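If you are new to this repository, start here. Below is one unmodified record pulled from the training split, so you can see the exact layout before writing a loader.
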Amino acid sequence: MKKAIFVCALIPLSFAVSASAAPAGNLEVTELGKISGVALACRQSTTMDRITEEKDRILPQTTDTTYDEIFKNALQQGLIQHQTSNAACPDEAAVKPRVDELFKQLRQALRR
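And here is the target side for that same chain:
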């Protein structure tokens, strides 16, 4: 019993370590992908286009597809979560400040 409690207590710590060990910008790219997925579900092309264009401008243009994979996976996750939740679509103007903040954090994380 004590072993099970100890293991359960370590699980949150493993997530904290993996989150802090994530490469620069991964958390921001993930959240931007999720927002883009909701925008796709809600047919909000202005938000989708802005996120895609700014993301492509900020992220390093390399053969490493890590950022693209993270973004696409998060986009799909955001799309599916929104579709299955039956939640109302957010107002694009209300989402804009969060997107701006995420891009600011992404630039700082990448020091660009």
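Two things worth knowing about this chain: Residues 66-85 form the longest helix (20 residues). The chain is about 80% helix and 0% strand.
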